[in-house]
Amino acid sequence: MTDITVRLAALREPAPASIFPGVLDRTGLADHYVTRPSPLGPVFVAFTSRGISLVDLAAVPEAFAARYRARFGRPVLPAAEPPAPLAAALRKALAEGRTGRLPLDLTGLSHFQEAVLHKAAEIPPGEVRPYSWVAGEIGHPGSERAVGNALAANPVPLVVPCHRVVRADGRLGRYSLGTDDNKRLLLEAEGLEVAAHESLAARGVRYLGSATTGVYCHPTCRHARRITARHRMEFRDARAARAAGYRPCRDCRPKAA
Amino acid sequence: MRTKTNTAVGGLAAELAHDRDAAFPRLVRTLQDGLFAGALRLTGSRTDAEEITQESFVRAYRALKSYPDERVRELRVREWLWTITLNLCRNRARARARRPEAPSGEDPAVPDPAPGPEQQALVTADRESLERHLARLPWAIRAALVLRYVADLPYAEIATALDRPVGTVRSDVHRGLQRLRQSLEEES
Fold first, then answer.
1. Could you tell me if A133 and A175 lie in one domain?
2. pLDDT score for A211
3. Residue A1 included in any domain
4. How many domains does chain A have?
5. Residues near A85 by beta carbon (within 8 Å), at least 6 away in sequence
6. How many of the other CB atoms lie within 10 Å of CB of A75?
7. Annotated catalytic, A162?
8. Which of A68, A199, B87, B133 has a Cα at 20 to 30 A from A176?
9. Considering A191, A223, A238, which residue would you say is the last residue of a domain?
10. Is residue A46 helix, strand or coil?
11. Within a domain: residue A128?
């Protein structure tokens, strides 16, 4: 007969899978998700007690839940609605394209990644900024590649508009939500004339200046878009703008020479 | 094995003190298998064990939210959870004893899926007789045995969880093993 202590140990059974989600649900720690319409089709939006934790496209809820679990090690359950304040902020973020005060749960991201996402959230709808601008703004000039990686790993696309950060040469660059083409689709849905932006950048134009105000901007800045053709100046870089006597826009903050 | 489990629990108190909500899911994941396995052997019912395991975590969470950080940092997390679970198991056993018509041990253990049918029947019979004899032991002895061999807790942690001296726990475990061997031999 096998030793009794071994036989006792053999009575051990793993906990049923229902315990973990049950406890999280009863302690109010369970994560939930809702679906929302978007220009890319319905998106799944998950939230914790802290805020939005994941936004993703998925064919079926099971696929989204599986991905959530793989990423966070926690289950995610369907919800009818997020808590009222969150629901209002989410509506605003998706409808107007402004993150505003929408609470985000970015637990697990590095300080650098968080800084990149918060900076991207400042870009107004219909406007774009180069990767190098984000890098400079968060105090890491020259690290645009790391900025690109941080944006590619953005867990909350759409609500943090990483699609508004593009390459300086006019190409749109990578996009994390579905295919790279979705980036163009989202920008066009926001009213950006992507083709015009691309051809301007392809000609080597980085900034536009107004001969009446003496201010230069990123070409998609709302101030730049108001410059009439007659007064519009094109600059290859900040040095050229400065040499012509222009100062950087206070809103879109192009690089100073 | 034991060292491994200790490492898993290690750092939990500090993490909880820092951020209850962020660390609590890890607490559940780390301790649920041991607590459930123990509760199952102490109640003899899968339904009871599942309810009790959940309830222990929920109570622990509420307590954690009310404790100041310093107190959480000092917590011996696994022993503390076991104290809660043991109380719930004991209360459940007492309630069952008062209402003898209530079913207990209603669900038979799920047999090991691996071996062939005849061998499986043997394993199941073997298991059931061990469970039956274990269930007949007095509470303190049974609790000590289950915590030691089913939940794989070191003596020091069992002593804390049961609030008894380590020496007493050791001798309870020893006596429990003797009695189990004896009653199993008498049966065969």
1. yes
2. 95
3. no
4. 3
5. none
6. 18
7. yes
8. A199
9. A191
10. strand
11. yes
Can you read off the two tokens belonging to residue B154?
């070191």
Its domain, for residue A39, covers 13-96
Which CATH number does the domain housing residue A116 bear?
1.10.10.10
Q: What is the mean pLDDT of chain B?
A: 87
Q: Tell me the pLDDT tens digit for each residue of A154-184.
A: 999 999 999 999 998 888 988 989 888 999 9
Q: Are residues A181 and A211 in the same domain?
A: no
Rounded Cα gap, residues A29 and A22, in angstroms: 10
> What is the per-residue pLDDT across A189-248, written as a single tens digit (0 to 9) for each?
999 999 999 999 999 999 999 999 999 999 999 999 999 999 999 999 999 999 999 999
Closest A-chain CA to B41 = A11
Give the ipTM: 0.85
Judge: B54–A19 Cβ closer than 8 Å, yes or no.
Answer: yes
Which of A96, A129, A162 is a domain's end point? A96
Output phi, psi for A190, to 5 deg: -90, 0
Mean pLDDT of the region B28-44: 95
Q: A83 in helix, strand or coil?
A: coil
B181 touching chain A per CB within 8 A: yes
Single pTM value for the model? 0.68
- Write out chain B residues lying below 8 Å of A105, CB-based: none
Token digits of residue A172: 């749109």
What's the pLDDT at A221?
Answer: 97
> Which CATH number belongs to the domain containing residue A75 in this structure?
3.30.160
Flag whether pLDDT at B111 surpasses 50: no
Q: Which two tokens stand for residue A26?
A: 């009863």
Task: Point out the residue among A12, A14, A20 whose CB comes nearest to the CB of B150.
Answer: A12
